[in-house]
Every structure is written in structure tokens, then in C-alpha cells.
Amino acid sequence: MNPSLVTTQEAIDPVFIFILGISLVMLVGITIAMIYFIIRYHRSRQPEPTSDVDHNLGLEVVWTVIPTLIVLAMFYFGWASFLTLRNVPEGALEISATARMWSWTFEYAGGQTSNRLRVPVGQPVKVNLHSVDVLHAFYAPAFRVKRDMVPGMENYVWFTAPEAGSYDIFCAEYCGVGHADMTTSIEALPPEEFEHWLRQEAAPETADLGRELLGKHGCLGCHSLDGSQMVGPTFKGLSGREATVLQDGVEKTLVTDRDYLERSILQPGHDIVKGYPPVMPGYEGRIPEGELVQILDYLTGAAAPAKPKPDGAALVQQNGCLGCHSDDGSSKVGPTFKELFGAQRTVSVDGETRSLTADRVYLERAILEPSAELVEGYPGMMPPYGHLSADQVEAIIDYLEGLGK
Amino acid sequence: MSDVTATSGRGFWDNSGGRSGLAAWIFSTDHKRIGLMYFWSIVIFFLVGVMLGLLIRLELIAPGVNFLGAQRYNATFTLHGVIMIFLFIIPGVPAAFGNLVMPIQIGAEDVAFPRLNLASFWFYAIGATLALVSLFTAGGAPDTGWTFYVPFSTRTTTNVSLAVFAVFILGFSGILTGMNFLTTVHRLRAPGMTWTRLPLFTWSLYATAWVQVLATPVLAITLVLIMAERLVGTGLFDPASGGDPIMYQHLFWIYSHPAVYIMILPAMGVISDIIPVFARKPVFGYKAIAISSIAIAAAGSLVWGHHMFTSGMSDMAVLVFSLLTFIVAIPSAIKVFNWVSTLYKGSIRLDPPMVYALSFVLLFSIGGLGGLILGAPGTDVHVHDTYFVVGHFHYVMFGGTGFAFFAAMHYWLPKYYGRTYNKKVALWAWGLMFIGFNFLYMPMQILGMQGMPRRYYDYVPKFADLNLLATISSWVLAAGLLLMFANVFYGLFRGKPFGTNPWGGASLEWTATATPPLLENFTEEPIVTHGPYDFKQAGVRADD
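YS: structure for the whole thing
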């Protein structure tokens, strides 16, 4: 059978029925035999045993061989149905799932994100599973699929939703105090509706020519865009900062302005940033003048379109804050966001309690360094959110202010 | 052999080795005293575990937060698991009844290394104390589940390190007891006690001891690695430092799956000893039962990966572990067929030990057959980490080993006290427990098939009815347990006198010792001339 013609639940359910059926027959057989023997050979009917038989080779061979054949059949069907779970049909829609303590984010090919998994009805969907902290597991009972989400490892599940509707997703690998609350749903939509939703959510694409050129010329092989450490310094926040460089072995401090950046691209050996190996080839004559301008515009931010201000409400969703903090006043793992801003809090700092007002400064600290001040009555479980940019933190605090005092 | 029945007095109770009071117990190297110390500590921990289990059920009586809340619930199920597994079910039958019965069954005065035996008990006592201390000290009660899965267990701020260290110490107790029993069975059998005349309870302890000695050190290593991870950040299981969380799971289950056989094999031995006595017939397929104990111990050491079908380990590993798992099912099935066949054409007495033993066969079969669903990878994926698993292992561990422990308690314990319980009350208690048990754990298996994950303090409303039924049944089960223990304990101290061999057993603890047994068990070394279930040749009858 072509695996793509079978959904996961169609593959697994017959195996359940097969194993449960045989088990039931055996259980009933054993129970009836026991009860019959107990009644028939009860000492009130049979004061002395009438047999001393203590073995019967034929019988023992039979009840060794038959169970062996039965369990081998169970093994075969169990394995074959497992393969259906592992073999993703061609043309499956790929969606990425990220789990964290204690929420889910799903990301679609166009960059859209959501907290509920939206899928088109009738199309196989492959969900790539990631975890950013501890073990979690993606479990959709309706489709009989489950797979652990392991930090540092990529796992996947696939399924096809047969009809429109909402299906449970549970975290099935124990992950701490919010484990039971780490639930969401699969929203299966008719294909047109799904497409419509995708288009609506699509982030407005800005043609980022400079960024594309960095890729084309291979710059991104050694320089990251996101601040991570590679062979060369990252491009993130590169422009306009002070840098310590070596000019012919002499240490110097300079500002990374547009001229410096141009020189670094064309004659990288002139100034070597301290701490990095002098391995970059010169790009003199290898980049057309127009493209160089584009790249410099990109690196210095001149080309950047006026960025829309980050949306605090969306950030709170995407970063899973609502997994532990409610926005409606109800108590979860952490304190609620409702009427948090400007409220009086009792916190403990290194074991000492003190009282403070939840102002902007406090909230920023609470996001970036949550363990510094713990709110009374709540476990100190929140991870630091240092990867948020200053803009993003500000947007989140604006959002909190909006939830009012 | 009739002279022993004439022995008067209180046997080993009258001879405390020159010590008095508490010292007569905690410094005693008499296997019977050590066995009784294990028994009473294990029963106390069991009752604590039961109370924690009732609290878990109370939280789950309805959706939403009831009584406990998330963090306390997580600590409660962790403690329930750690106490029940490491303090009750692993040492339960082998340490308590193994010590009480095994040396007498083979005609020995004591175990091979009596002082080491006392040291094992001390390790058990220290480990158990540390586990309790970890509840009340820095950071709060551990909340990782009894599996201590990384990376969560290396991150949580609760007192995991001490709990892990406690389990490490408990492991030593098991290793030392295992070595002791192996040596005892090899070296101290009485004249004529050939390997084919060993009672099947001793055979099962022998198979178990090999697993204890070979598998427990792996757990010890794994636990040391967790402590290193927490205390100095070695990073062995942390992907950010090149470590691997799945490797932890392999190491953990390399011990903890064989541990399942440490729990169930001695229980099977108890059943194999009790059923023939109350059917008045030799056990059917003695050799098959003995060999299947060894087969389970050997093959059972190679199936740990079936706990990890959804973990992300390779599909090839899933194939191999699934196949091996199904192969382990075969010797277990053979034992069930042998027990049932032993009843055929016997003369069956439904005394309390027999009723508990027969219900073991039924409950163990339900648990074992449910295990087939878990062994098949396709179906396991759906029910892995759901209430189906919780129901399954309670059928095998509680319905199996727990009921075997109760059967052993009703069968052997009066022999050591010289007094016995009320049989009618024992049967009433059994009835309550049997009903409560099935209406507690069967709903769990159904809930799991419907998709309710385990370790959830809160659940979606569609799971509410069966959870309510399970919680109510937990009270029925608890009432049965209370009645059973009250009846047995009252009987042991105040009950009617218990004769030398009222059940009509043919093994040495019934035919060659006084009630209660003497300090070194026998007045003269017994000479064995027949098998342990050869009631005719032994010339034994049950009292009416």
C-alpha cells in the first residue's frame, strides 16, 4: 500500500483492534479456565487431588509456539504501522513547531507565526519539532501521533486532518509546573480558508537588496546577521561603534563608519579587528560599484525602511509569556499581567523581602533578569529574555501599561 | 521430622544474641530479624505512598485546581513514584520475604554473609531517611518524576540532588543483598537440596539477584552523572555542551527496565510456591517456570529501549527493542499457563493466600496483555506517556507484585509470629481491594486510549467522568487495604495460635522448623529427599 494514501489514524487503529482483540480472547480464556477449575476442583467437590501430573511436553510446546507466533504477528503489524508514522507522504506542508516552558509557537513557510496550529483539511502536514529548553512532546491524540521535542535535535510528526474542526494538542513529556497547561489545538480549515489566513498573516516583505547581496557574495559564510559568533565579527549593530583594530600590528581604536566599512570590504588586511584571524580576502574589483553602495547602505542602516514599531501584544504571544502569565487576572504559574503596571509588588532579593512599584525600570529588569527579584508567592522559574531587543522590551512594557493599573 | 513440631517457646524471639531492646534488632544479623525490619519499614513506606496516591487522586477528582495545585501535585507524584518504587516494590518481596524465607527454604542457618545482610538493611534505612529529608530541605520537594529526566532534572531548583543521592544509596542495598543471595543459594543448600528441588520462590530470588548485581551499578553511575551535571555542570546530557539528553534515557532505562523484573520475578516466585500448596498438587511445569525466570531475567535486560519509542532514537533501535520486548512476553505467558494448569484436577482450598495468588494471576494477565499494546511501536506512540501507561504498570506492579506481597504476608508471616489473622475478614478485605483496584485502574487505561497525558494535574472536561470514578474507587481500595492490614497485624499479635504447618506445605520452612523458627532455624541439618511440591511423599496435610 502506498503510505501516502493512508492517514496515521487509519494505519494505527486496526493494530489497536488486532492486539486488543487477541488480548481479550486470551484474558477471557484464562479467566474462564481459572474459574472453572476453582469451582470444579474445589475441595468441597474433590477432597483429594485426582492427578499428580506435573508436566506435559506436548502441551508445553503448544503453548510456547502459539504465543510466539501471535506476538510475532503483533510485532510485525506494530512495526509496519510505525513506519507509516515515520514516512512522510510527498508534498506534505511543512510547519515548524517550537516548544518552550510552557507554550507553543508554530511557524509557517511564509514566516507567519501562531500559537494554534492551523492546517488545511485533507493535506498531509509535516510538523518539524524543536525545543528551546527541556524535553517536551507533541501529542495529537486524534491523529495517534506523538514525538518528543528534544533540545538540540530535530524530530517530526506528520498527519492529515480528515475534516475541518479543532483537535487537541497536549505536551506529553513532563516539563515542570506548567506541563498540564501546555495545551493548544490544531485548527483544521478548508484549504481556501487556510490560504486566505496565510495571506492575511504574511509579513509585508521589503525587498532587502543589500541583504541579498551579502548572501550572493558569500559574506554570510563568515559574518552572522543575528549577532552570533562566527569566523568574522557579526554584522548586527556593526555600523557606528568603536572597534579595536590592529594596523600593521599596532593596536588602534576607531569608529566603524561608512569609510571604514568600505575599506574593510575592499582591503580587509588594512585593519584587522582584534581577536579575529586575518583571513578575509579583499573584494577590490570583485564587487560592482553599485552593489557596494547597496551593501554599505544596508550595513549602515541607510537602506532600512522605517521599521514599524514592534507590536507588544504579538511579542507577548510569540515569546510564550502567556504560557505562565494570564492577561485576564487569573492566576497561573506567574503573576497575571492585568493591572500589573504601576502596582505595588513584594519581592525578595537574595532572601530579603522589599516592596516596590512595578514601573518601567522594574519591568525591564523583570524581563531581562527575572531571577534578580522574585515576586512573593511565585516560583523562580522564569528564564531570562535577554535575546529581546531594547525596542521589543519597550513594546512589551507599552503593552503591559495598556493592560492598565 | 516430627520432632520439630514439639518445640515450645517463641523460637528466635527468645534468642536475641545477648542484646536487648532496640539493639536486639538493629544490630542483629539473624536473617529473620532483618527480614522483619525490612517488612515493617516497607509497610510503613507503602502506607505513606498510598496516602500520596490518594492525594493525587483527590487532585484529579475534577478538572481545574483542587486541593494541591500544580507544583505540589508534581512533588506529590514524584514522591509517590520514588517511595513506591525504590522503598516498597523493589525491596518488598526480595528483601522482606527473601530474607525471612529463603535461607530456611534451602536448609541454611542464615544467609552466606549475615553482617553484609545487616549492612544492606542499614543502607536501605539511610537511603530512605535521605529521601525523606530531601522533602523538607532547601529548594522544596523534588518535582521531576521518579525518572529524573534531563535537562529538566538538572535545571529545576528543587532538591533533586539529595533525592538522587538517596536512590544511589538504596542501590547499594540492592547490590549487596543480590550478592548475598547468590552466594547463599550456591553455597549453603542442605544435603539433597539439588537445583531441581529448589522451591520456585528461591529460584526466582536467584534470577532476581543476578539482575540486581548486574543492572544496579548502571543506575548508580547514571545518578552520579546527574549529580555532577547539577553540581559542577559537566554538560554530559546538555546539547549546548555537546551532550545528549537521549543518552541519559538509555542509561536510566538500562537499569530501570530490568528493575521491573527485580520487582516482578520474586512475586512470580511467591505465586509459584502458593498455588501448588492450596491446590494440593505438584506445580505444573517446574522446570519451565524455573527456566522462564532465568529467561525473563536475561532477555529483560535487553528491552529497555521500549520506553523510548517516541524519544527520537533511531527507527532501527525501535525495531530491535520492539522485537525483543515481544520475546520477553513469551516466558511470562508460559508461567500464567503453568499456574492455571496446576489447578487442574487438584483439591482447591480458597484460603486467603490462595485468593490473593489467584487474583495476582488475573491482574498480572491484564497488565501483561496491556503491555503488548505498549510493545508494538505503532500503538505505543499513541498511548506512550498517557494514563494507559499509568494503568498498565499499576496492574503489573500493584495488581502483580503488590498482591503477591499481600499473598506472601498471609502465607508466611504467621509462621514467624506463631499467631494468625481472621480468615473471613481477610477475604472481605480482599473483595474490597479487588473491586476498588479494577475500578481505579481500568478507567485509567481507557482514559489513556482517549488521549489523557500522564502527570497532568488538570485536564480537559471530556476526561472528567472516568477520573471521578477512579477517585471514588481509590477510596474503596484504601478501605480494603486498611481492613487487610488491621486484620493481619491484629492477628499477628493477638490472633489464634498458628501451627507448624497448617497449610500443608512440603518445603523446608513448613516441614523442618518450629513455629516460630529457632535462632539458626534447625535443630539439626535437614536432609532433603523430595521436591518442594511433593506433598504425598512429604506426608503433609493441611489442617482443617
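YS: worth flagging: The radius of gyration of chain B is 23 Å.
IM: good catch. Also Chain B touches chain A through 87 residues (CB under 8 Å).
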